[in-house]
Structures are given as structure tokens and as C-alpha cells.
Amino acid sequence: MTSLVGSSLLFSALLLAVWGAVASWTAARRSSSPHALSAERAALAVFLLLTLSCVLLVRAFLVHDFSIRYVAEYSSRNLPLFYLISSLWAGQAGSLLFWVWLLSLYTVAVIRSERRSGDRQLLPATLLSLHLTTAFFLVLTSIATNPFEPLSPAPSDGRGLNPLLRNPMMVLHPPSLYVGFVGFAVPFAYAMAALGTNRLDIAWIRKIRRWTLFAWLFLTLGNLLGAEWAYVELGWGGYWGWDPVENASLLPWITGTAFLHSVIVQERKGLLRVWNFSLIIVTFALTVLGTFITRSGIISSVHAFGRSSLGPLFLVFLIITLAVSFAMLFRRLPSLRRTLELRTLLSEEWAILLTNIALSGWALVVLWGTLFPSVSEALLGRSLTLGAPWFSAMSRPFGIALLFLLAICRALNWGRTDWRAFARRMALPLAVALGVAAVALAGGVKHGAALLAYALAVAVLLAMIVDALRIAKAKAKTSQVSLASALWNLIGRQRRLYGSYIVHIGVAVMFIGIVGSSTFSRSVTRTVSPGETIDIGKYALRFEGLKTESHSDRTSVVARVSVTNSGKAFGEMTSRKDFYPNYEPVTEVGIRSRIHEDLYLVLAGYERDGRATLQVFLNPLTLWLWVGGALAAVGGIVAWLPPRREKTQRTPPKKR
Amino acid sequence: METWILTIFIAGFAFAYVLSPLLKARGTGRRGGSPTPSPDPFGVILQEEVELELAAGKLDQEEAQQLEQLQVPETAETDEIELEIRARRRNLKRR
Lengths: 656, 95
Description:
- The structure holds two protein chains of two kinds.
- Chain A has helices at 2-30, 33-62, 69-74, 81-86, 92-117, 123-144, 168-183, 185-197, 203-234, 244-269, 273-296, 311-331, 333-336, 348-380, 388-409, 419-442, 448-479, 483-493, 495-519, 622-640; strands at 522-528, 533-536, 539-550, 555-565, 568-579, 586-588, 590-593, 597-606, 612-620.
- Chain A is an alpha+beta fold.
- In chain A, α15 packs parallel to α17.
- By secondary structure, chain B is mostly helical.
- Chain B has one domain.
- Chain B is built from four helices and no strands.
- The interface between A and B is large, with 63 and 59 residues.
């Protein structure tokens, strides 16, 4: 029954999405209100039908309805409630259903937002893109990979959830990424609407600002949660292995970040109009490419559990999207071209332009490295992979360039900057940065790129704080209030500006963590008997022995280690191997996180005689990556929130 | 087969809701028109940002004026006019 109803709901949603696209097209062509309203209603109906589908599938997981193949493949009776609900996106069919449900939710939110704004001229054309994208994903989920496919005879228990996915981070990581990925469909749809209706002014830029920021925010969170998951679950001591699927979610983040910055130049100077359209088209295409890489299995990845035969369909959709979008852009080129008015290189618009070039260059390098195995296979007949060291080495110059631009950009004016004013603004950040570099050098840090990165990160931190205070001082002076009051008022009112300060401070802090953990990490691997010790840095890890634990869903072999730090007791750490039925064993690592370094323990293997092979990592400053990421997310939220309304002074009614 | 019958049933209900604006419009002959747009709150915020930058010495008057001009929305019509002006200029140059 669930299978029957679920499939019918999906087919109905597909028919409605197709009608929505037809009605949107007619509304946009003929300015027909009834068709526009019909397209809006179609979006609402699709959303309701897909919500029902999701509820139905979650219910099937909760009641262990193994007559549904998807439920039988991704859950079992002993799975905790938390993971039963998240099983919705554990496999491909459910992920796509969740994806298209999110898209329908975004579509309804866009309609609501447009109704509130009152300016609905772009809405029909915007809905056309959204309906077409929804229809494509509904074709996939209702025909190609239906989550309600029946299974007969139904087994008494399911296969269970992949143990790698039994992690709280993994419950949050995919939805965050999906919210980010799908979110970029909205600015893309507005861009297509602007091109289609020839409304090429800044109206569409203003409309998409918060949508883009929202998508970027969740993509940032998704990537961070994925990195955290890799750090605690994959057991190789790091958090970013430049895996193709990791890169696939990094790529739209990079171009999305570039877009967030370049639209400011269009808003402030009316420039980069063609570039902005191109960037949002590419960003949306990269979200589709990301799904294609994950689902096609063309490149081997840690996300191999996501492989399927849907790759060619995604590829066709990707090619059509790119061809149609760029054809529309090409058609409007005569109206879009503006001459770049160069007053001086020392200006904020040039800093943003260079930031865009650096981000785009980085994206191209990551894309090339990611697709290299497929390209080499096509050209040479054998698949060659570019490893993490290649990506790290190639990304380093871009990271340094971005930090440098970040450090100087807030000291620059729009239009032109006086050299002396620029030098005065940069004096404090530069002096402190040089001081930090000198202290680090004296402390034994000999790595040139790391020293430069630390100095620049400190310069960014200070440059942001100095600029935020300078603006607040100006506000305090003009409004004749205290500095603290002006600052508070500005954080509430100028949320985009002050949110960006927090984001950039977060990015600088993240760089401190990334440089520390990637440059100065070290590790020791040894096979030890109980009572033997492994030394790393100031730590001594004494292997106490192995023990076996039985749980309702798994059996675990646990290695216990007691740690001393410079001779003082530092507690006990454990790492274990979990054995789940139907799956390969997985390793759970032990981590002791401190402000300046992480001690990271992995049970790599064990012998029957009680010996264990332990791998110990000392990762400096890793904690700052998560702190910086959290700050960047907070800044993103501040920038996304609508501005606080100014209090209007009420005049008392006149007495008669 | 059962799936298709149920699909027709569900989609039928949904389409009755979705198509009703078109059926009503046919009765009343209503077409076209868009509501008047309300002012964009972010335009106000940008204006405040510019004022702050002027006060903090991060922007000069010339830039501020240029920015103000940019905030005037272009319409499809103005773009068409611009294209026509360009075409006429090109023709004049050729002559």
C-alpha cells in the first residue's frame, strides 16, 4: 500500500511540475496573471505531494516496513530512532527524494517572498527554471530510482545502515550540503529570469542576495561537518583528503564565494555583469556536476556507497543546462557589456576583482585535479590520480593570495584610495603581523609559506577589527552616541557589513588551523604488546591491552591506552574496530583535542596474541579550524538576517 | 495499473486546484497586470552603508553620486532604447 501511494504521489508531482513549467512559460511570455497564479499553485501542490511522500517514507522506516526495498536496504530493526529518520537520505533514491522536496520548499519560499515584496515581474520566469529542475529530479526519483519500489517477499529484517554513516555528523552533513546545493538553484533561476525577460539591472542581484547567502552558509556548514566526519570516522588522521566527492562540494562553494563578492561590484559600480551571470550559471552547474560525480562512480571515492547508474542522466541535464544558459547570456551580451572604468588599481573593486580571479583559478585547479583520472583514462587509456599532496601544493599560492587580498581589501576605498590613508590603515595590522612572524621564526618555525600564511592571517584579523571600529567611530560621531552603542546599533542594522567582518575573521582563524594541521602534523605507527609505550612529542602512550565488547548491533574490539603528558597523567584514550553484520569493519578513533594540538589515536590492526598496531597523530592547531568555521557560520547568519528596523519616534497626539 | 489509477485520482484533485485560476479567468476575462512593487529595504541599507563610508573617509562624493545613479532601475524598455541609440550612432559614423 505504501509503495502504491508513494509512487502515485511522485508521478502526480511530476505531472504538476511539468504543468508548472508550461504555465510559467505562458505567464512569462504573455504576462498572464491566471497562468502565473496557476504556476504558483502547481509549485504549492508539488511541495505538498512531496512532503506527503517524505512523511510516508519516514513512516515506513519507523514501522520497519521491509516490503519497501529502500527501507530494507538502509535500515534494520535495531537501528536507533535518530538514524531511522536520517535513513531517508542514506541511499540514492531517498537522497534524491529529499533533494527534490527541498527544491519544492525553496520554490514555495520564493513565491512567498515575491508576494511579500510586491514586485513579481521576474517570478513567472524564475518559476520556469525551478519547475524544470524539479521536473528533472522527479523524473529521476519517480522513474529511474523510485524510493517506493516494492520488495517481495519482504525480509524479516533489513540490511541496516552503513556503519560509516552511523555518526551524528553524518546525520547533519548531507542535509546541510543538500540545502546548500539546492539553494543555488534559486539565484540561478533568477539569473535566467533576468536574461529571459531582459531585466538586466540590479533588481535580480538584490533579490538573490539573501538566497545566495543562505545557500553559501549551508554549503559552508555541510563542508565543515563533512570534514569533521572524515576526521573522526575515516581514521587517517586528517579531515580533507581531496577526495573527488569532497572536491565536488568544495567547487560550488568556491565559485559561490566568488559570486557573493562579485555581485557587490555590480551593485556598487554596475560592472562585472556578464561575469556575474557566468559565475552563477557555473555554480549551479557545479552543484549538478557534484551530484553527477557522487552518483556516477566515474571516479573512485570514499563516497563509493553513493554510486549508481544515474550518471548519464545527470550529464545530459548538465550539458543542456550549460548550453541553454550560456546561449541566453550570449543573446544578451550587447545589453550587458560595460567598459571597465579604471580609476586606480588601489581600490576595493580591484581587490574584489583579483579575489574573483584567485577564487576562479583555484576552482579551475581543483576541477582539473578532480576530473584528471577521467581525462587521463580517456586520453591515455589508464586512470591517473592526482593525490592530496598535488592539491595541497597547487592550492597554497591561491590561499596566500586570498589571505593577502583579504588583509588589504578593507583598507581600500571604492573608486580610488589615497596611498597615505592606505598606509595609515594598514600600519597596525602589518606591524602586528610582522611581530607574529618574528616570534614564530624565533620559536623555530622555519616553513616559509606557513610563516607568511600566519602573518597574513593575523593581518586579516586586525584589519577587520580596525575597519569595523573605524566605521563604528564614524557612526558614533555622526549620531553622537558612544562607540559601544554605535557598534551595537551597526551590528543590528548593517548586518551584511558586520556579518562579513565576522565571516572574514572566521576564515583567518580557519587558515591558522589549516596551515598548522597540514604543515606541522606528524605521526607514529607501531605494533605494540600490552605494557609497551609509544612516544610522540611530549606525550607517552602506554598500550594497556585489547578488550571485546558485544552490543545489540555490533561487536567491538577496543584498544585502551593510558597517556602521560611530560610525565603527568593525561587520562585514557581508546580506539576501536566495530564489526557490523553485512558490512566491512569500521574504525572509531580516539581524539584528545586541546587549544594548541590534537592527539589522535587509531587502532590500525590487532593480532590474536593481544598485540595491536596503533597509529598516533599529533595535529597542531586543528581545533582552530572548527572554531574559525563556527565563526564564519555565525557571520554568515548575521549577514543573512534581515536588517533590524530603526525605531521610529512616535509623536504624541496633539491635545485639543 | 493500480498506481496509474491512483495517480489520476491524486493528480485530478491537484489539477482542479491548480487550473482553477485559468478557468475563472476564462469566465471573467481577466488577464495580465502586476501589483505595484514595494520599496526594497536593502536599498535603504545600502544608502546607510554609503553614508557611513562617506563619514569614515572610505568613499568620495563622486563615487557616492555614481552609486546613487546605479540604484535607478533599468527596464527592458530602456535597454531597447539604449540599443537603438547605439545602432543610430553606428549608422551616423558610417555615413
